[in-house]
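Thanks for the sequence, V.! I ran Pyridoxamine 5'-phosphate oxidase family protein right away. Repeating your input here for the record:
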Amino acid sequence: MTTWKEFTEGAPRIAGIFTRRHAATGNLCLLATLRSDGFPRISPIEPRVFEDQLWIVGMPDTTKFRDLGRDPRFCLHTATVDAEVKDGDAKLWGVVEDVQDKALHQRFATELFEDTGLDLRGRDFDHFYAADVTGASAVEVGGGHMDVTIWKPGTPERVVRKH
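Predicted structure:
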């Protein structure tokens, strides 16, 4: 599994854009999953980095988590609010693993409360998905061109410039 630290070390340019855009939108991203009929589903999500791992956690009993339970593949896209993409955007894709570690859940809930005031301490999490990032890309536009940065684990980032 690719940890968040491994991702940021292997793909610093993409990680920087993802982190910047994630923070700029109040941690909002769009999560793509596969529905039971095979069609894609796009859902809002607020992924969090905790203990060196990217976590996809949220409201219990939602269709997006049923999708991930059936098929662990996902794509996570930073929420783009600018049609000219002046601030860039990033996509991560991979697979999730449901981690049922109650002590981890409570450490996460404590940090979430300290950071946001949302109090989930003492509650059970139905699903607690660790994201294994198996690829990523980012787009930056400026100076009359667009740079697309691409990364896969074990390879350096590669930039494709489009004019």
